[in-house]
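Q: For a teaching handout, I want to show students what a protein-ligand complex looks like in token form. Below are the inputs, and the small molecule is iron/sulfur cluster. Please produce the holo structure.
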Amino acid sequence: MLPPRPEPNPTREAREALLVWDRAHRVGYPWRRTEWDPYATLVSEVMLQQTQASRVAPIFEAFLARFPSIEALAAAPRGDVLTAWAGLGYHRRAVALHEAARAIVRDLGGRVPGEVAALRALPGVGPYTAAAVASIAFGVPVASVDTNVRKVIARLVFGGERDEITARQADDAADAWLDRDRPGEWNQAVMNLGRDVCRTRPRCEACPLAGACRFRASGRDGRPSVKRQPAFEGSARQVRGAVVAALRDRSPSTLGAIAASSGWPADRVTEAVIALHRDGVVEATPAALGGHLRGRVAFPEG
Ligand code: SF4
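A: Here is the structure, written as tokens, with iron/sulfur cluster included.
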């Protein structure tokens, strides 16, 4: 574990530099035009979990056009939601978002809650997403700390990598660093920096915080020690995506038909169907879960 930095925070100039950089940078993100709409904020934050912003942007806009309100999303069949999710992967998030919309309409009168605790009680909403929605849509002064934010804080404040600091150190530093007058804008600026500049291999020459960064001053920039994401090609994630894509074309279907249309071997398709069934993304008969080619697989009803 790394010791805390002697001086607690970047300077006022560095903070302003980050906000100025982000205001110019964020123009291309459609969710930045909807920051006071709690429903759109919830959708964007769930989509941005684990998916690059450039891939999210067009799908986010099409999703909101298809489901313009939380009531519309709650009333939609699960298959429609999964179809609108095409291209984002990690379909469990779509199921959770759909369940959250239904819970909000059923239990909260259709009002997305602004309190962190109430947000965390929703399906698929963890501490990061709850803090992001509360700060962006409701102005609640709470820091949202995901792996990208933790990476920025570890480097900037502690001079190391994110796996060299504890969650408590990251949370405390993020809280001390938060701009309490503009928490939503601030959180998004830090997230965007972590996504687009302070990457696994940091682009320090383009970073507005370069002059205040302990990591860069130590000479470690450009030599990341964190692990890269495993390759997508040939992964279980890719096969799950192929199963969902096959069902978008024809649901219900059979294990054999999915294997034939996707080109993946039946054993890989079976593994993917078992995982998707467990996550509530598809329904599968015991035969399909047992690997029988005639076993039926479908998007859930309702
Ligand atoms: S200077 Fe480099 S390491 Fe430091 S916050 Fe910026 S991009 Fe990350």
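A: Two things your students might notice: Strands lie at 253-254, 283-284, 296-298. Residues 156 and 213 are 4 Å apart (CA to CA).
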